[in-house]
């Protein structure tokens, strides 16, 4: 069925274009040197952290500890020199446990160089903690001490100093603040997410829940750490970056600013994970490293031109593959599938084969998956499963795998099974079992891959191995080849779950459940999951045909022929019975026609 020569030629063209694309790698631009060396007072910052830990050790959004910490932050901000009066933003946010009310507390530091027309800077720190967790005071401590230092020096840009609430609930506080200052141009935002805990270096987070990233801001933060002589953790490799853009999973407030189009990054003392256990009070050395890095970064941004906006780029060995080139590279990786789809569409059209019945069969196969997603979403609405937190995936603690979760899984699977029983005959009609069904599956695979590339290119990158393996499997001549292709097809999904396990600091089995549940709950959008389900169903359809041939011992007979045989043409016109798929039926066909197999390949 697959034109092997054309497929290999497409890969050759794609490989040459990929080499050209890799030549476009660029080093992210830097920022100017700050006019003065950092003078951060780490001892004073440690005193602030100790006071906050005493006043409100636990600060779950909407609780008394959250209110106490907000009042305490407001009192501390009153002492910032040169600042405007303290302002507070009260807001409510929907959480898996119900709606809670919390607030942001902030002051503004006007530019000291006259009436500045340059965009403002946001410096924020999340104030809240997850239930049962103590710690995270270093962010607020560095924020307050940095504000006191900035209030005594001249600046080109105004600065907002913000203590955000509900960071653990979809970063709702940062999103609320960013949305309320849409009329004020913002050049960049820096979030301090417990940057001085127990650490092997300062981690820089630069990704968002919408799949975009702020690579120039991350580069500026790393450069600031080097200038401040602070230890710096390694930057994530290509696969974690691509996984984070395919299935976004982040807990930092930088996500909210990036989603608003603001270049942003978070400084943290841990990899990209939420606070999940009690953290001891930060040491003075760690506070000094984090404070000097933040102060150097703010001073550099104050002198720099506007940074490029967030986009979906990739950093490879310290060099950036630009967003447009990233999209082109992914399209090139899908080029052989698209070429095979066009080739088969032309061949079937010339042979007079109608594709509508085959495409309809694929749509019938998609219905069970849609039914399972719909039932799961209804169970979320009914409160049987955890919902979203501020519209985004909640923390792992809010998505338990308990008895209601098991019942919800059984109900969703049951809905899928019942739907499949209802549509099975339509999805597996005999006129859809001819070899041309496989060709139609390849055509549908090309169309869905193209749509997924338009909607979420990096999600397509995760699905491409399975798509290529399904395509190659139609030419397999040995059962072991089919098994090997199946393992290769499943590898990206396994790696994705493994990556998510690191992001939420949980085991692999639970991480698989977490990804599925948060997707069903609507925390990851609608279009991407539906298109990913379409890819899954199309690959499943092709795989079922191949496995059927494996069970019948027909793999060694060669690949499918996309153009139907004369027997299949006559059968479609009603002049001859359709060749049977069962062993007894094939014997009956052989006895009738005098030929084993009834004309099937």
Which CATH architecture of the largest domain would you pick?
A: 3-Layer(aba) Sandwich
Structural class assignment: alpha/beta
CATH superfamily of the largest domain, called what? Zn peptidases
Q: Could you say what the CATH topology of the largest domain is called?
A: Aminopeptidase
SSE order: HHHEEEHEHEEHHHEHEEHHHHHHHHHH
Q: Helical element count?
A: 19
- Assembly classification: single chain
**What Rg is obtained from the alpha carbons, in whole angstroms?**
29 Å
Total count of strands: 9
How much of the residues is beta strand, in percent? 5-15%
- Kindly give the count of domains: 2
Major β-sheet, in short?
7 strands, mixed
- Provide the residue-averaged pLDDT: 86
Shape annotation: elongated
Low-confidence stretches: 575-582, 595-601
N- to C-terminal distance: 11 Å
CATH class of the largest domain: Alpha Beta
Helix proportion range:
40-55%
Strands of the widest sheet, in order across it, are 1-2-4-3-5-7-6
């Amino acid at each position: 069925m697959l034109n092997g020569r054309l497929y290999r030629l497409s890969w050759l063209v794609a490989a040459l274009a990929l080499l050209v694309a890799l030549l476009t790698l660029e080093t992210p631009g830097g920022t100017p040197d700050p006019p003065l060396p950092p003078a951060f007072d780490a001892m004073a910052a440690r005193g602030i952290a100790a006071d906050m830990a005493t006043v409100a050790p636990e600060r779950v959004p909407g609780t008394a500890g959250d209110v106490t910490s907000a009042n305490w932050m407001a009192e501390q901000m009153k002492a910032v020199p040169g600042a405007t009066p303290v302002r507070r933003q009260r807001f409510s946010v929907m959480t898996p446990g119900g709606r809670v009310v919390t607030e942001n507390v902030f002051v503004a530091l006007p530019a000291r160089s006259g009436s500045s027309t340059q965009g403002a800077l946001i410096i924020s720190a999340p104030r809240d903690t997850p239930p049962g967790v103590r710690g995270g005071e270093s962010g607020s401590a560095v924020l307050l001490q940095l504000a006191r230092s900035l209030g005594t020096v001249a600046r080109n840009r105004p600065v907002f100093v913000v203590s955000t609430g509900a960071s653990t609930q979809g970063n709702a506080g940062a999103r609320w603040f960013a949305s309320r200052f849409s009329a004020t141009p913002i050049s960049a935002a820096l979030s301090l997410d417990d940057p001085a805990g127990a650490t092997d270096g300062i981690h820089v987070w630069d990704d968002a829940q919408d799949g975009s990233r702020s690579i120039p801001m991350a580069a500026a933060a790393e450069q600031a750490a080097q200038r401040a002589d602070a230890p710096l953790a390694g930057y994530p490799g290509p696969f974690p970056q691509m996984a984070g853009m395919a299935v976004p999973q982040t807990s930092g407030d930088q996500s909210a600013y990036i989603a608003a189009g603001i270049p942003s990054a978070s400084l943290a003392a841990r990899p990209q994970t939420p606070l999940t256990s009690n953290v001891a009070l930060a040491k003075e050395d760690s506070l000094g490293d984090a404070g000097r890095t933040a102060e150097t970064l703010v001073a550099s941004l104050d002198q720099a031109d506007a940074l490029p906006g967030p986009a979906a780029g990739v950093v490879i060995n310290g060099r950036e593959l630009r967003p447009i080139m990233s999209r082109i590279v992914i399209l090139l990786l899908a080029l052989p599938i698209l070429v095979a789809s066009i080739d088969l569409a032309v061949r079937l059209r010339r042979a007079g084969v109608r594709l509508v019945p085959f495409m309809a069969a694929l749509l019938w196969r998609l219905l069970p998956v849609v039914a399972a997603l719909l039932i799961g979403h209804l169970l979320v609405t009914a409160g049987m499963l955890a919902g979203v937190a501020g519209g985004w995936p909640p923390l792992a603690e809010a998505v338990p795998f308990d008895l209601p979760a098991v019942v919800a899984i059984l109900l969703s699977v049951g809905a899928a099974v019942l739907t499949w029983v209802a549509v099975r005959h339509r999805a597996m009609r005999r006129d859809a079992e001819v070899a041309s069904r496989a060709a139609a599956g390849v055509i549908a695979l090309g169309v869905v891959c193209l749509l997924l590339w338009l909607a979420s290119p990096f999600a397509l990158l995760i699905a491409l191995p399975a798509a290529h393996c399904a395509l190659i499997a139609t030419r397999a001549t040995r059962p072991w080849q089919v098994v090997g292709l199946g393992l290769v097809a499943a590898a990206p999904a396994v790696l994705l779950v493994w990556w998510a396990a690191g992001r939420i600091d949980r085991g692999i089995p639970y991480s698989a459940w977490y990804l599925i549940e948060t997707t069903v709950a609507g925390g990851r959008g609608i279009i991407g999951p539906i298109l990913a389900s379409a890819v899954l169903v199309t690959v499943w359809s092709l795989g079922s045909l191949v496995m059927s041939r494996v069970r019948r011992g027909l793999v060694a007979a060669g690949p499918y022929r996309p153009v139907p045989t004369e027997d299949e043409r006559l059968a479609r016109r009603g002049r001859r019975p359709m060749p049977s798929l069962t062993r007894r039926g094939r014997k009956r066909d052989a006895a009738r026609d005098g030929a084993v197999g009834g004309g099937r390949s």
